Amino acid sequence: MISAAMLRQFEDEGFLVVDDVLDPEQDIQPIIDEYSALLDDLTAQWYAEGKIPSTFAGLPLVERLTRILQSGQSYVRYLSIALPQTKVNADTPIHLGPAVFNMLRNPRLLDAAEAFLGDEIFCHPVHNIRLKPPEALIPDDFKDNGTISKTPWHQDQGVILPEADQSKILTVWLPITDATEENGCLMVVPRSHRDGLIDHCLSSARGLHVPPGLIPSDRIRPVPVRRVVCFSWTAEPYTRP
Fold it and tell me: Rounded to two decimals, what is the model's pTM?
């Protein structure tokens, strides 16, 4: 699956697109079905509590998420597959469904990762699922939230704890829908992993991020990917999922 030429490209450019790692029906569709079922339960509860005007049942997943946000209700914490780094309580929501778990331990995904890491693989805790409606339909109150709206420029090494710096970390991004330039694909700066860690700023709205003025705009490259693609990059390049 991963050739020597692909490994060289990964080392040189700092990112790599690997086609046909996952099967869209066997691996991706169960995740969509699982989250649709989870939303059935959540919207029934929120509707009963008067937080949303309808359960929006029967709508496609993305349209349903959009209508929930437009009602003023955030779904992010309830759909997250990892706990936050701070303020974790016994009732902090987390989703640990079988479809998401099966995705994390998918044999073809792990085989691909072994080409970069060797056969001893641990799943680091900075894993997320981001279900993002169209930007134009997101209410203003949520537009600075990178888990709902566009993620600010950053280097992965800049947003994890310092004790991870000595670990060899591979980040893998898996689209559950086609990610195109029109609907918002990943943006990277090729070879930026060779420049070292850039200054990150902290704000209450955007979290840790690289200020736009530090981004070499002439080197930005869009990377459209299909839902059957495994998109991998090192911990260092800028990314904007």
Answer: 0.83
